[in-house]
Specification:
two-stranded parallel ribbon, five-stranded mixed beta sheet, globular, single chain, Beta Polymerase, domain 2, alpha/beta
Length: about 180
């Protein structure tokens, strides 16, 4: 299925959710309303003609330093691939500076849990409904989000106490029969 046919199928299933689209080198690129992202991605994953069975990554963006940009400050970009059919898609949702929130898709792809935590940690996008949205790359006392364009790169951060990760480890050990 080519990018245009995929776009038509998505637009028919979710009228009004698509805010813009492009076909770059045969890869579908769609901008969606944030409230629709989980439903659209579930459809892309579950539809046998689309079969986007792999989430490659979720990338957080800060547009505040982009020349001429007038829309929302933040965006989350979802990179999907169909391992069985070979096609790819890029979906983008935006979020305003005063409330950078988008719905989680961690219930759809296991690796979304970590991808969303990274975007939260580095850019500050909150994924509503995420089961454990906490820092993953920076320490728990880190102030700010280092990939935001206004973050002072020379700022120093103090760490007074290590954070235990046993809450996550205990769940994983129990799942594997270790208690």
């Amino acid at each position: 299925m080519d990018a245009q046919a995929m776009l038509e199928k998505i637009t028919a299933k979710f009228p009004g959710a698509v805010k813009g689209s492009a076909d770059r080198f045969g890869q579908l690129e769609i901008q969606l309303e944030a409230k629709s992202i989980a439903d659209v991605i579930a459809f892309l994953r579950n539809d046998s003609e689309l079969a986007f069975n792999m989430l490659i990554d979720i990338v957080g963006l800060d547009y505040s330093a982009f020349p001429g940009h007038t829309g929302d400050r933040f965006a989350a970009v979802y990179l999907l691939k169909s391992l069985t059919l070979g096609h790819r898609a890029q979906l983008k949702v935006t979020a305003p500076e005063d409330k950078p929130e988008v719905p989680t898709i961690s219930h759809l792809y296991a690796n979304a849990n970590w991808c969303e935590r990274e975007a939260y940690d580095q850019i500050g996008i909150k994924f509503v409904g995420h089961p454990n949205l906490k820092r993953i790359l920076n320490h728990h006392e880190f102030v700010g989000h280092p990939l935001r364009k206004d973050y002072p790169i020379t700022r120093r951060q103090a760490l007074s106490a290590n954070e235990s990760l046993m809450d996550e480890m205990a769940v994983r050990l129990k799942e594997r029969g270790w208690e």
